[in-house]
Amino acid sequence: MKKLIQRIKALLQRILKRSTSNCQQPSPLINYRLLETSLPSVSPRWESGLVLVCSQCANEQSGSTASEDLENWLKCRLKFEGLWGEFRVVNTSCLGVCPRIGITVVVVSNGSHGNSPCLIVNPQSDRELLYSYIKQNKA
């Protein structure tokens, strides 16, 4: 079994090397560049930020869909104001904060350098405040 896995791994590495060397003109929407690990990477379209909404917070508290409602509201609002694409809203599993009340949201932007705070948001009353915070992170 180990030999089979090693063969598959070697084959995939050869295929990856061939495909990257044969790529003469990449797609204008996708900017491929190789990392030190030789894994291809893609520059995302959501350059202003990524909004992570914990899908476990509200489920743990009451079994409700409050985090899903907040996520959908943010998506609709960003689309309505023409900011969808610059920002991306996704749900995530537990972020390890686990507030008693509220939902954990992290807004990751290019300027945050990995120092993004975990926001504890009331999914109903803090929507507009969260949205203004997201807009402040616009590149």
From TrEMBL:
Source species, domain of life: Bacteria
Entries under CDD domains matching the protein: TRX_Fd_family
Name the record gives this protein: (2Fe-2S) ferredoxin domain-containing protein
